[in-house]
Amino acid sequence: MNIFQERKVVIATKHHKELVIAPIIEKELGMISVLVDEFDSDQFGTFSGEIVREYDPIETARKKCELAMKLSNCDMAIASEGSFGPHPSTPFLSVDDEVLLFIDQKNSLEVVVRTMTTETNFNGSYVSNESELNDFLEMILFPSHGVILKPCKENTDKLLKGVADKKMLFSAFHQMMAAYGSVYVETDMRAMYNPTRMKQIEKTTTKLAIRLKSTCPNCENPGYGITDVKEGLPCSNCGSPTSSILSHIYECQACKYSSEVKYPNNKSSEEPMYCQNCNP
What is the pLDDT of residue 91? Predict the structure, then answer.
């Protein structure tokens, strides 16, 4: 039985994320998506730095859902929260870490899915002339992807956001250079100005739909899925545990039933090159 069929769910966004979230949840789960005009996600933090995010990504998404449900009088909500920065193991690569959180108050259900990818244009640079600015714009896929201009990286008082017009951009660049002597340009990571990020939100929504269609084998509640991973896949040469994934842990939020699925990547051992004992 689909407990979500024909029920309203509010999408907690002001950055047009409903464009990719709504079609998936409506088609796959039978939900009816709604928006709230007065919902303002910027109060929970902005990528451009005017408001610092106070909570971690999951708690931030939870607070977005709670506010959206209060404003809309819905008992279901979906919110996303993105984080951008250097890759945890390869610092010269940037990553987009997308969290999507779903709350169903009626059924006491909360489900979190996450997608981490290096498919992002996240970047920023000081530019001192049109040539440097053009190089940056080409690298970050302007004008399909918007940018933010600041007098300096830390200055959030005089910034210009959501710039996707080249004439406007170069005019603002010259005005900023004349007034402050420097310009910092960075990618605008808000979803409506960043199709690459919007694509990742779409992928994460698909993961959420799959998770909500997965039911617990013990109590049949939806949302049964991976909640943890265990490392320790043995080396094929010496048998020592490696940092590669040995198993996935599945758990039901409702009844707490859990199961362990070994060798999720169809590998029962790891190559010696990834072993700290064989290849320290």
Answer: 79
Chain-wide mean pLDDT for the chain? 95
pLDDT at 253 (0 to 100)? 85
Largest CA distance in the chain: 67
Q: What is the pLDDT of residues 58-89, one digit of tens each?
A: 999 999 999 999 999 999 999 999 999 988 77
DSSP secondary structure code for residue 233 in this structure:
P
Number of H helices, E strands in the chain: 5, 12
The tokens describing 82, both together, are 């993105």
* pTM beyond cutoff 0.85: yes
d(C-alpha 100, C-alpha 193), whole Å: 19
Pairwise CA distance, residues 215 & 159, whole Å: 47
Q: 51 or 200, which is more confident?
A: 200
pLDDT value at 1 more than 80: no
Would you kindly state where each structural domain of the chain is located, as residue ranges?
1-119+195-213, 124-188, 215-280
Q: How far is it, in rounded angstroms, from Cα 271 to Cα 5?
A: 46
Q: Determine how many CB atoms are found less than 10 A away from the CB of residue 140.
A: 23
Specify the CATH class of 1-119+195-213 in words: alpha beta
Terminal CA-to-CA distance of the chain, rounded, Å? 52
Query: Length of the chain in residues, anyone?
Result: 280
Radius of gyration of the chain (CA): 22
Does residue 230 contact residue 260 with C-beta atoms inside 8 Å?
Answer: yes
What tokens appear for 19 in the block? 């464009």
More confident residue, 89 or 32: 32
Comparing C-alpha atoms, which of 126, 120, 160 is closest to residue 140?
A: 120
Which of 47, 86, 65, 30 has its CA nearest to residue 213?
A: 30
